[in-house]
Design brief:
The chain is α+β, with helices and mostly antiparallel strands and 370 residues long. Among the domains are: 127 residues, Aminopeptidase; 127 residues, Gcn5-related N-acetyltransferase (GNAT) (Aminopeptidase). It is built from twelve helices and 16 strands. Strands 7-6-15-9-14-13-12-11-10 form a nine-stranded mixed beta sheet. Helix 7 packs across helix 10. The model has no long low-confidence stretch (mean pLDDT 94). Belongs to the FemABX family.
Length: 370
């Protein structure tokens, strides 16, 4: 089979995504409307006249060389990663190089390792284990093969030790849902999580779906100030909600947890096909004892189950198991849901114009240091 790559319309791209079992929301046409600071391009892989793959490309320009771009496919492209990678990637490289890209960055949605919640728990209890990667995970041979082929083809891994880089996290926490009931999922959680869900119900926490994004954003700003991260503006969430709901009314859902008249937690769930993703969350500092965040998570998990989803994605974690690491609380919280820690292939760059690529790397290092 010989494949060709060419531009496709947003409608063609959307129809292809809709026909897939599972696609990252970062590879939907809507995401191009959210990332307005980058030029976007929807590409299709064709076997003759038949569309067999698709990818959303975000073009990031180089300062002072705006006709040269980093062509970025976050958590994509949507192709057959189990097949002949050269057959899929070679025409992509040729197309993007002809369009002025100085480098290509891909994020294959392919796993390399999986660790169960029980393994993670044992890692926490062992003082000699400081990172997930020191535990014997279950390897995914497809991911191992993809990593090897990318490296042999000149692609460069962009995966920092902590799992968080300039792009999207390599390590995630996920709850498998296929063939499971609410009771199964609840039994898989640790005692603290089950107790917190029961506590929220006993305290009368009420979770509702839908509402005012401004109310969510106000609580999100409060959370950002408390937890010391840089928040996104309200306009970002309004754009995200409008773009995703235009593709599918159920793609973007807002959850609010109230105790009496007080908003105690709020979350955003994004679903594409059978993949449900916890995208953003916020919580009040007051009334933390009523466990509004756990109530929101449980409501989203139950809705994902009802929608027939195969996975509930809690997104990024760092691979640390070191009790002294400030990031360890993230994986401890998520591991309480049961589920599994997952390492993906991560993001990889292919320099097409090495001089420009090196200049871009220097620019990004100076920017991160400032």
């Amino acid at each position: 089979m010989t494949l060709t790559v060419g531009a496709i319309s947003a409608a063609e791209h959307g129809a292809f995504v809709q026909a897939q079992r599972s696609v990252s929301f970062l590879q939907t046409p809507a995401w191009a409307k959210v990332k307005t600071e980058w030029r976007s391009e929807a590409l299709g892989w064709f076997d003759g006249q038949r569309l067999v793959g698709a990818g959303l490309v975000l073009h990031r320009p180089v300062p002072h060389l705006r006709w040269r771009t980093l062509a970025y496919l976050p958590e994509g492209p949507v192709i057959d990663w189990t097949g002949d990678l050269g057959m899929w990637l070679d025409p992509l490289v040729a197309h993007l190089k002809a369009g002025g890209a100085f480098a290509i960055r891909v994020g294959p949605p392919v796993r390399t390792d999986v660790w169960s919640a029980a393994q993670v728990k044992k890692g926490f209890a062992d003082p000699d284990v400081r990172r997930l990667t020191e535990l014997p995970g279950q390897p995914d041979l497809v991911g191992v093969r993809v990593s090897s082929l990318l490296r042999d083809s000149g692609w460069l891994p962009q995966n920092p030790d902590d799992g968080f880089g300039a792009g999207h996290p390599q390590f995630k926490y996920e709850i498998p849902l296929t063939g499971r009931s609410e009771e199964d999922v609840l039994k898989g959680m640790n005692q603290q999580w089950r107790r917190n869900i029961k506590k929220a119900a006993k305290e009368g926490v009420e979770v509702t779906v839908g509402g005012d994004l401004k109310e969510f954003h106000d609580l999100y700003l409060h959370t950002a100030a408390r937890d010391h991260f840089t928040p996104r503006p309200l306009s970002y969430f309004r754009t995200m909600a409008a773009a995703m709901r235009a593709e599918d009314p159920d793609r973007f859902r807002l959850y609010f947890a109230h105790h009496d008249a007080d908003l105690v937690a709020a979350t955003i769930l994004v679903r594409v096909g059978t993949h449900a993703c916890y995208a953003y969350g916020a919580s009040s500092t007051a009334k933390r004892e009523v466990r509004g965040s756990n109530a929101c998570q449980w409501a989203m998990i139950r809705d994902a189950l009802a929608a027939g989803c195969e996975v509930y994605d809690l997104r990024g974690i760092t691979p640390t198991l070191n009790a002294d690491d400030p990031h360890v609380g993230l994986i401890q919280f998520k591991a309480g849901t049961g589920g599994q820690a997952v390492r993906y292939v991560g993001e990889w760059d292919l320099p097409l114009r090495p001089v420009v690529y090196r200049a871009f790397q220097m620019y990004m290092r100076r920017r991160s240091a400032s």
